[in-house]
Amino acid sequence: VPECLEYVFIDMVAGEFLQSKKSTGQLSALQIEPIVKKIQDGDTTVEFSATADIDTMFNQLTDKLIHGYEQDLLRHRKLVW
């Protein structure tokens, strides 16, 4: 495995681990902080994501961990110089 892809595999394994824990019921209480959607510097405005469903946010985050780096993997299918 190329050294530059180690973070990809770590994220993918962490996402799979979290999804398997949730599907087997071993994650009883999900505590996910709201995701920041917009930050404005003048007069300091912070807007959070409107997604209120914790399960939906959890699924989106784990899906991003598992499938978010496919371009990096495809790039290294062949020898990269």
Outline:
The chain has 81 residues and is mainly alpha-helical.
**SS class:** mainly alpha
Helix content: 40-55%
Overall spatial form: flat
How many helical elements?
3
Major sheet = 2 strands, antiparallel
Along the chain, the helix and strand elements come as HEEHH
**Quantity of strands, as a count:** 2
Please give the alpha-carbon distance between the first and last residues: 15 Å
Describe the structure.
This protein is mainly alpha-helical. The protein has three helices and two strands; from the N terminus they run αββαα. The protein has a two-stranded antiparallel sheet. α1 (6-23) runs antiparallel to α2. It is flat. The mean pLDDT is 81.
Write the layout of secondary structure elements.
Blueprint: H1 6-23, E1 36-40, E2 45-48, H2 54-67, H3 70-75
Antiparallel strand pairs: 1-2
Helix pairs in contact: 1-2
Primary descriptors:
mainly alpha; flat; 81 residues; two-stranded antiparallel ribbon
